[in-house]
Amino acid sequence: MAKHQRRSDCPINYAVELFGDKWSFLILRDLAFKGKHYYVEFLKGGEGIATNILADKLATMEKEGIVVKLVDPAHGSKFIYKLSRKGIDLVPLLVEFIVWSAKYDRDTAADMKFVNKAKKDREGLVKEISDQLKKVLSA
Fold first, then answer.
1. What's the pLDDT score for residue 89?
2. What is the DSSP letter of 34?
3. Any domain includes 2
4. N or C: which end of the chain has fewer CB within 10 A?
């Protein structure tokens, strides 16, 4: 398989090539904050992602090591998706997106308790979320 041709070696370009669409961050949101792990749960996220796009985004994030795909031990024909350690490293960025959106989107659905906690102790909140996701990953 040929290596993907990158536009540049710019670090922002790397991130844009991985996440430069509206769906990737919503999938990350569901994994990091909403406790979703199954394909069908992502489909029911509310934004109306198409099955082919979801499959493509999950495959890309798995290939890039951002999510891990595991066979569900309770249902051998289903898969569980979890954030990898590389994916968990995106939690600070996701928290920043939430705080930024809460500041500028007057119609935001952001949980203001979460936003206020982030404003008071961003590091502590990120650590709490990251530690919980690491437990989920190792389970």
1. 97
2. S
3. no
4. N
